[in-house]
Amino acid sequence: MKRGLLLIFCTLAPLCAEDDIKEEQLDKIINNPFLTKLDELNRNTYAVDKEMINNKGYNSTFELFSYIPFSGFSNNGNGPNIDLRGQGINANVSTQVLLNGIAINMLDSSHGTTPLQSIGIHDIESIEILPGGGAVMYGNGTRGGVVSINTKRRYQSLYLTSGINYKYANGLSPQADVKIASPIAKDLYAQLSAQANIGSGYRDNDTKFTSNLAGSLTYDISKDQSLSFDISYYSGDEHTSPVLRFSDYPNITKDLRNTPGNGIIRIYQTRFSTGLEYLIKLSQNQKLKINTYYQNHNSLYKQNTQTLDYSYQGRLLPNTNVVQDHAFFTDEKAGLKANYQLLHNKGHLILGYDFLYNKALRNLPLTINYNSAAMSYHHQIHTYVDAKKFSNAIYAIEKYNPNKLFSITTGMRYELANYSGYRRYDGNGILNLNRPTMPPNRPSSIPIDQSHFYHPITGMRHNIAAELIPSFHFSWGDLYLKYEHGFRSPNPDNLANKPISNNYQDNNLKSENYDTFEIGSKLFANDNFMFMATLFYTLTQDEIFTTGSPHSGFGFSTQNLGLTHRGGIELASEQSFFEDRLRLIESFTYIDARILKSSLTTYAPNDLIPYVSNYKATINIDYKLSKYFSLYTQNSFNGAQRDSAQNKIKAYNLTDIGIRFTTKHFSITGGIANLFNSFYYSFYNADSTDSVVGLAFLPAIGRSYFIQGRYQF
After folding, report:
1. DSSP structural state of residue 551
2. Tens-digit pLDDT profile for residues 460-500
3. What is the per-residue DSSP string for 356-415?
4. What percent of the chain has pLDDT over 70?
5. What is the mean pLDDT of the segment spanning 227-252?
6. Cα torsion angle, 34, 38, 41, 45, sign
7. Distance between CA atoms of 165 and 709, rounded to whole angstroms?
8. Average pLDDT of the chain to the nearest whole number
9. How many C-beta atoms lie closer than 10 Å to residue 635's C-beta?
10. How buried is 565 (Cβ within 10 angstroms: 0-12 exposed, 13-18 middle, 19+ buried)?
C-alpha cells in the first residue's frame, strides 16, 4: 500500500527537500526500472503496479482495464478502444496509449483499433493513467488523456517466472507464459518473455490462438549512460463469426451470448515493434533521453463472409451475402523522440523534439449479392487507401518552484503535420428486375456502378498546444488548477468525402481545438490513506465526425462538428488496515459528454456523444486471511451509453471473486469472473444508416471460471 501511495504522490507533489528531489529524479536513469514517470508536472494521475495486476486470472489486457479507475471502453464496430473522459466514438484517436513511452494508436481512424491484445498481460510492470490532456508533452490526440503501459528491462539478479491459466466460459481457454531475466555480463542485462493462448471463445465455434514474444538488452555504458534495445512480436489467428442482427433476434436474452453470427470470419494479425533508447546523465542536474522506434501492425481477413440486412439507396435488402475475403489493414510507424531535462535551483525544465512517420494501408474488396423473386443485386466494390502522415514537433515545459508551498507549470508545443498518399475506388454493379408485368421496352438489367475514382491525399496542418498549472502544496496533500489548450490534427483518411456515385472530394477539414479547465487535489492522511479528486470541463471546437458508411464505400462525409463539451468529476481512494492485511481501492467517475452546436444533420444540439458511459465506479477489496491465503473481490459499475443513433445502451455491473494461496515461490488463484452473470454488450448499434455494422449487436462474455498457477524463482 505504501509503495502504491508513494508512486502516485511523489511524482506529483514534491514536498521533500529540493536536493532529495534532484537525486531521486536523476537516479532514474540507472536505478529506476520505469526510467521516467508519465507525469511529474502538477496534475492528478493514477498508478497501477504489478501487485494489482498479478493473480487476478486475467487472460488479456482488455480484462484488466475493465477494473482500472477512470478508464472505459468504446466500440464503434471494429473492436474496443480505451476511453478516458468520454471520447466515445472518437476514443481511438483522442486517448493516447503508450507502450514504454511510444504511442501505439492506429492511423486509420475508421478501421484502426489500438492493439492492446498485442501486449502480454504478464509483461506489464505498471500502468499510469493521466486523464485529460497532456498535449504539450504528448502531442496530437490527447484530449481524453494518456495511458502509459510500462515493462521492466533491468533485473539485478536472476529472475524466472512462469504461469498457467485455465479459463472456462462455454469452452476452455488455457494460457501459458514464461519470463526469464538476468545480468549476463558486467553492466549488461537481458530479459525474454513468451505468452501463448489457445482455446475456445465464449461464442459457439469461436477459437483463437495468440502468441507474444518480447525481449530486451540493456547496457550500462558507464554510471551515467545507458543503452536499451527492445523487440517484440505478436501473432493472432482467430476464427469467429459476425455480430448478431436485430432482424434475426428481435427479443434479446442472455441465451444469445453464445450464439454465433450468420457467417464466417477468420482474422490473422501480426504486430512487430522494436526500439533503441539512449540515456545519458550529462551532469548532476541534466539528463538526455533519445528513442528511435519502428512498429508494424497488420490485420488480414483470410475469410469474411456474412449474411446481413444491407441498405442500398434507402432500400433494405434482407439476407444479403457480403464477402470481404482478403481485406487487409496495415499500420506502420517509424519515429524519433528526444527529451532533455534540467533540474535547477528553482525548478525543472524539459525540452523535447518528436518526429513520426506513420503509414496506413487499407485494402477492402467487397462483393455484395442479393436475390429475391422480384430482383437481384450484384455489386463489386474495391476501395484502397494508401495514407501517410509526417509529424514534427518541438515543446518546452518549465515547472517553477519559488518555495515549498507553491509551484507553477507552463509549457508550449508546436506541431506540424504533412499528409500524402491517395484513395482509390473501383465499382462494378448491376440491378436485375425480375417482374413479369414490366413493359417490354424497359430494360430488366440496369448498370448501377461503373466507377473508377482516384483522389490524392495532400495537405498540411499547423497546431499549437499550451498549458498553465499552478499548484499549492500542504502538509496534507496538494491542490492544483489547470488550463490546457490542445488539438487533434486530422488523420489522413479524414481529408476527403465521398458522395454516393461520385468521386472523392476535398473537405477542407480543420484540426480540432479544445480547452480544458480543471481543479484537482490529493489528500494523504497517513501512509494508509489516499484520496484524490478532480473536477474538469473540456470545450472542443470543430470536433471531427464521420457520417455515412466508410466501411462499404457507398458514401460518407467527414466534417467539423460545431461545438462539443465534456465535463465531470473523478474520485479515487485507497486505504489499508490491520497492518496492510485489508486493502480497499475505490473510484467514481461521472461524465456528461454532449454536442452543443451541430453542423451535421445526423446530430442535433444536446445529443450525447455516442458510446460514452455516463459513470463508472470501481470497488476492489483484498483481504489476507493468513500468511498463505487471501480473498479478493473486484467490482465495476458502468453507466448507460447511447449508440450513434442515440439509442440507449443499458448500464451493467461486473463482479469477480477469487481466493489466492501464496508461498515464497509459488501461488495459485481460483475464482469466478462476472459472478452475477450480468448481461451487457461488447458492441451495440441500432443505427440503420450504416449498411455494414448498423442494426447489430454482440453480447459480451457471461459468467466464467478460472484457475491460475504461478511459479517465481
Report:
1. T
2. 999 999 999 999 998 888 899 999 999 999 999 999 999 88
3. EEEEEEEEEEEEEEEE-SSEEEEEEEEEEEEEEEEEEEEEEEEEEEEETTEEEEEEEEEE
4. 91
5. 94
6. negative
7. 6
8. 88
9. 18
10. middle
